[in-house]
Amino acid sequence: MDRIVYNGTLAEGWPEGISPDELLSAPYLYQRLHTFAHRPLQAEAHLAILARALRDMHGIEWTLPVGRLEREVAELLAANRFPMRSNCVTLRLFPTGIGEAGTGPDYLLEATAQLFYPPYTLWHKRLSIDVFRCDVPFGEYPTALSLLAARWGRDAAERSGADTAVIETREGVLTHIDGEPLFAVFGRQVMTTPRACGTPDTVMRRTILAACRAQGLTIAEYPLSRQLLERCDEAFTASVQGIVSILRYRSRHYFNTTAVKLSERLRRENPLR
What is the pLDDT of residues 177-211, one digit of tens each? Predict the structure, then answer.
């Protein structure tokens, strides 16, 4: 069984007395960390997002030193014999602890997957998307429920012949694709739904918005809708890997010029060391 890190301790398998089903069905907050050479990228930003979510949703103050996270990630990946290249590590934070006796917050690190490409590389496959209506409480935060909604949406999209789904609120606002925001391009303007309307605050969202500004693009935080998807020139999202270009929404096909240029900028500005 793969090794995990549970509250700072490298362990063989899941915590004693806790089944995987019980663990993964418990409410938690999460971050997907892109690691390179066994080092998590933008670790401080990931921890800040988790800390703010825990404070806003549960009124709990929580800190994990960046240096400690970096050491534990390196130990975890080495113990599981992951290569010294790009990998994904999932950090789950359980506000009330794990199991009936949990006092929380507890955290768990899991080596999730080896990644195909170095950081910020444009994903090789352009996605077709559909829309899945599902109201998710606290949609602007990285919760287990938002991941579950994304999975339901993806399953529904695949049945309709698409690759994945963008989540839509009952008010008709498009919020995210698999926990990452949606971006729509109109000429040199990039639009994305604001956090106040339910789009999640993610490290890649912050990174892409900064790259847009550096590229001289205008940013408009405005509630995206199906109608805007049918009119925009280009659409893209993100993943733990990097930027993901969208090929089409139903019969509407898109360019991918902006996604390519932003990905190239991010790779230039973040050379591997």
Answer: 999 999 999 999 999 999 999 999 999 999 999 99
Sheet bearing 86-94, strands edge to edge: 9-12, 3-6, 106-114, 86-94, 29-36, 39-40
Query: Helix-strand-coil percent breakdown of the chain, rounded to 5?
Result: 30, 30, 40
How distant is the alpha carbon of residue 170 from its chain centre?
22
Bridge partners of residue 185, in order along the sequence: 190, 234
Q: Within 10 Å of residue 183's Cβ, how many Cβ atoms?
A: 26
Per-residue tokens: 10? 């490298």
Q: What is the pTM of this model?
A: 0.94
pLDDT tens digits, 145-186: 999 999 999 999 999 999 999 999 999 999 999 999 999 999
Q: What interhelical angle do 203-214 and 257-269 show, nearest 10?
A: 100
Determine which helix (DSSP H) or strand (DSSP E) holds 165, and give its type and residue range: strand 164-168
What domains are there in the chain, each with its CATH number? 3-114 (3.30.470.10), 127-269 (3.20.10.10)
Task: Quote the distance between the C-alpha of residue 267 and its chain's center.
Answer: 19
> What confidence category does residue 96 fall into, taking pLDDT thresholds of 50, 70 and 90?
confident
Query: Beta-carbon neighbour count of residue 262 at 10 Å?
Result: 26
Max intra-chain CA distance, the chain: 56
Q: Is the pLDDT of residue 15 over 60?
A: yes
